[in-house]
Structure formats: C-alpha cells, structure tokens
Amino acid sequence: MVTNTKNSSFNSMKLTILVLFIVFFASCADELSYTPKPKGYHYIPLPTAEYVALPDSLPYLFEYSAHAKLLNDSSYLADRYWLEIYYPQFEANIDISYKPISSRQDFKEYVDDCFKLAQKHNIKAQAINEIVDKTPKGYTSVAYELEGDVPSYLQFYVTDSTKHFLRTSLYFPTSTKGDSLAPIIDFIKKDMKRMMSTVDWNTSRKFDAKARKFKKTGRNKIEEIK
Q1: Could you report the per-residue pLDDT of 159-213, keeping only the tens digit for each?
Q2: Which of 10, 14, 46, 140 is 20 to 30 A (C-alpha) from 129?
Q3: CB within 8 A of 215, min separation 6: which ones?
Q4: Which residues contact 159 (CB under 8 A, 6 or more apart)?
Q5: Are 210 and 202 in contact (CB under 8 A)?
Q6: Is the dihedral of CA 175, 177, 178, 184 positive or negative?
Q7: pTM value?
Q8: CATH 3.90.180.10: does it fit domain 51-221?
C-alpha cells in the first residue's frame, strides 16, 4: 500500500493554520470584550445616623449629628455664636455662621456674600446647583450643591428675611478626590439637610449678637470697621 505523504503533509499544514486562526480570533474577541475595572477605593464604614439638639445658649436652634463635636469658630473673622461642627472620624467640618438682620441692606449683603462664596469654587467645580425651598417652619432656605474636586460640597443658608440669617458650609481639609469621598459626602449631606429642615430661632431670651463688618485695605488684606 502506497501512502501519499505529500497530501498528508498539506492537510496537516492546513489544520495547523486553521488552529492558529481560531486562537488568533479568539484572543482578538477577548480584547474587544474586555472592560477595564473601575478604580477601587477603601471601604469606609459609616455609622447609623443619630441627631441631637443644639444647646439653648445660641440664638438659633437645629438638630445635628450625634457623631460630631461642637467647637467654637476660632477664625479671626468669627462673630459671636459662630460654630464648627467637627466630624473626627472623617476629618470634616461644617462651619456655622449667624448674623442678625438690622436692615434690608444687611439682608441683601448676606445673600450676596453667600452667592459669592459658592461661586468662588467655580474654577474647580463641575457644576453648582442652587436649590431654593421653604423649611417646615416656613423659612427660606437656599442650598448650593457643588460637584467635582472642591473643598466644599454643600453650602446653605436659612433666613426669616427680617431678623435672622444662618449660613453653613461643609469643608474637607484634604486633597482627596471627590469620588473617593462620595459615601462620606452623601452621609454628611443628609445630616446637613436634617439641620436645614430643623432650623428655628431661639426666642427664649435676648442675645447680644452684633455682626462684625470688614473693609478691604489691600491685596488679600481686610480690616474690621469699628
């Protein structure tokens, strides 16, 4: 019996080429279907939300997180009754400023200042959303929600437009990217919305709340107006 070695070798070559083609196209298909995994971040354990009331030694009232600490605002610009609500677990703080309204001009200045303080983050912010609403007590509330890698992610003020003006601002004194802080930001935003919805004015006694005013005296320099 005579074996045709030429045909056998040719068939073997065709089979090898076919296998190579199958492997090549399979690898191409894997590459085309590959989806890179999103960048991962460390798991951040969050406590259960709990709230306590402010002491009645302040001209304003609201509920704040039981996981935070009340600190006096130590900045040289601070007025009396200004506070910081500090979250030790997250190294974040909410600045609280309060000003009495003595005139319509005061009210306009306070509103303009809040707008300017939110807009100064415009360079880094991807978006600034302004939300105007009424609190359950019937006071006007204006919130600025900022998106992107900014130091402040939520600011709001509540006012009765005639006597009281309360402003808050959330700050993270870190350079961490906003998306990695997202769970913490969302957690504290809920706390701030609770604060905003429970704001009221303390009429149990009189408070010596006099707003300090400043003027610009040079580049990055201001001076208090006596």
Answers
A1: 999 999 999 999 887 645 556 788 898 999 999 999 999 999 999 988 887 777 7
A2: 46
A3: 222, 223, 225
A4: 101, 107, 110, 139, 140, 165, 166
A5: no
A6: negative
A7: 0.74
A8: no
